[in-house]
Amino acid sequence: MRFGPYFGHNRQFSSLCNRTSTVIDNQYVDDGKSLEMHEWNRKNATLSQILGVMLGLMSVLKFLVPIFFVGVSLSFGARVWSMRSAKVASGLILFCVTALTLDLYHEGFEFIHYQTTHALIIIAIITIPLAGLFLLQVSHQSQIERGILLGLYGAIFLLSLDQYYFGQCRASGFFFGKSINPLLITFSLTPIALFTIMDRLEEGRYNIFDFGLCVLLLPATGALAGHRAAFYTVIIIYALMVLFYLLNARKKAFLLSAALVIGMSLTVFSDNYTGCGFYNRVSNQKPLLDFYETFETIVEKFETSFLSLALSPVFADSALAMDVTKINDHEIVKATPDLESSSAWRILLWHRFFEFSGSEAFNWIIGEGRKAERAITPPFAHLHNQFCSYLVQGGLLKILASLLLVLALFKQMLASPPVVAFLLMYAGQFMSNSPLWNSASLPQFLISVLFVTCALKVKNENSLNVL
After folding, report:
1. How many domains does the chain have?
2. What is the distance between the alpha carbons of residues 252 and 240, in angstroms, rounded to a whole number?
3. Are residues 54 and 183 located together in one domain of the fold?
C-alpha cells in the first residue's frame, strides 16, 4: 500500500510511508524503519483522539474549536494536503466563495461588522489542508470515535453542571455570562452525536457508552438546553430508525426504542426536579401544530400589511436598541393568548418573509442581502428559519451553493442511516432557527460537514479495496 495520495507534496513523509512493504492489522511493518513507523502511527492515533474530543466538545467551547482546527490544519494539515483533499473540499470552498461574493455585492453590507464573513474567509483558506488531515486521521477509527464520545459526554456534563450546580435553566455550558444562545449548543452537538452513534450501531461497534449517549441526548436537548426543535427532531430520528431496523435488525430497533423511552422519562424527571418548565412548553404546542389554522387566524385579525408593520417606526430601531422584554406586549402575541410568545413571533417573522419575498422588487436569484433581512425582523437579527434567511440573503444562488456543500452526503443517504440522521438533525433545527448567522455556529457547521464527508469517502474507498 502506497501513501502518496494522503501526503501530497511532502517528500519526507511520502518517502517514509512508501517504503512500507506490508500492512498487518493496521500496523505498518517496514524493513529497517519499523520503529520509526510505529512512533509515527502512535502520534497520529493520539492526534485522532484529540480531534475527536474537540469535535465532541465543539458545541460548548464556542470559538475555541474553530481556532483549534485552524491551528492543526496549518501545522499538520498543510503537510498532508493533496488533490484528493482539494476535491473533497471543493463544495465547501464553493459555498464560502458564493456567500462572500453575495455579501460583498449587496448594498449596505459592512464588511467589518460581520464576524461570520471573517469566519467564511478563514474556513475557505484552511479547508483543503483540513480535509487532508481528516482524510488521514479518520483511518484511526477507534481512536477518533473514542475521542468524539468522550467529548460529547464532556459537553453534556458541562450542561448538567450549568443547570444543577449553577441553577441556570436552558443551560449553555458557560458559567460566566449567558450571552450565548442555548439553542446553539444542541445545533452542533446533536448531528455529530447521532452520526457517530448510528455509524457504530450500523457496523456492530455499539456498546453501553453509545446507549448512554442515546439516552442523554433527549434530556440534553430538552430539559437542559430547552431546545424544542432539537428535542422533537431527535425523537423523530429515533422513531424512523426504529421502523427501519424493525425490518432487518430487531435487536437494534429494541436498543433505540429503549433509549427513546428512558431518555424521554429522564427528560420529564429532570425537568420536574429543576422546575425549568420545559415540559409545560412542550405540552402547550397545539397552536403550533395547527400552524395553518393559527396563521390564518393572525392574518384575519390584522388587515394591515405585516411588511408595513415591520418597517414602521415602532420597529425602526436596531435589534440591540429595542427592549426584547416588550415582545410579550406586542399585539400579535396578545391576539393569540393560547400561543406562547416565541411561537407567535416565529409565525409573525415567517409571514413577513412571505410578504417580502412575494413583492415584485424581491430578487429570487441573488436575494436582497443581510441588511434586508434585518430590516424585516426587528427586534431579532434573523427570520428564525435558515432556509428563509438564506433565500433573503442570497436567493436561489445561495440555496444552490448550500445544496452543493452537502451533495456528497445526499448521494449516500439511501445507503447510510447515519448520514440520514446527520442531515435530518440539521434540517430539523433549521426549521425554527437561523443558527448560521452566528460566527461560532457557522464554522462548527462547516467543520462538521467536512468531517462527515471525509469519513464517508475513506469508508467507501476501504469498501472498494476490500472488494
Report:
1. 2
2. 12
3. yes
Beta strands 22-24 and 27-29, pairing class: antiparallel
Q: Are residues 341 and 269 in the same domain?
A: no
Chain segment 321-379, per-residue pLDDT in tens: 333 344 444 555 555 555 556 776 787 788 788 888 888 888 999 998 888 888 888 77
| Contact between 170 and 182 (Cβ < 8 Å) | yes
Residue 13 contacts residue 7 (beta carbons within 8 Å): yes
Query: With a threshold of 0.85, does the pTM exceed it?
Result: no
Are residues 278 and 289 located together in one domain of the fold?
no
Q: Do 116 and 189 fall within a single domain?
A: yes
- HSE-CB at 260 with a 13 A cutoff on CA atoms is 18
**Spatial distance between the Cα atoms of 87 and 239, rounded to a whole number of angstroms:** 35
Query: Cβ atoms within 10 A of the Cβ of 75, count?
Result: 11
113 plus 12 within the same structural domain: yes
User: How far is it, in rounded angstroms, from Cα 182 to Cα 313?
Assistant: 31
Phi then psi for residue 181, to 5 deg, are: -75, 125
Element (H, E) at 81: none
